[in-house]
Amino acid sequence: MSDEQPSGFARAARQAAFRVGVSTESRAAAYLTGHGYAIAARRFKSPVGEVDIVARRGAELVFVEVKARRRLDDAAWSVTPRQQKRIVAAAEAWLADHPDDGARDIRFDVILVARNGRARHITAAFDATP
Length: 130
Known about the structure:
By secondary structure, this protein is of the alpha+beta class.
């Protein structure tokens, strides 16, 4: 017997993870909106990476990564340096497409969500320097 999961199971697991991700991102967007942010984009995709939420508040432009895991610590550890580089690259693509945003203060935040519903918004979670 093979250790591989049947493709139907794998597909169902991916679909469930996608639904959880979309739901978590919706909650994060609602949280940001409630704290005075205007959502400019959700799931912004570029050839070099993706950003879950792009938001503006005053002079700030914030690129937000949303992570849901069983525990907040697990969610925090899942934002790897490699992923941070891809988010920064996607942010650069956003700025190339939206040059007016280049005058804003740019920040990279993370919103962590645990399975029990606890959430944590980490402002300036990482920066664009290598």
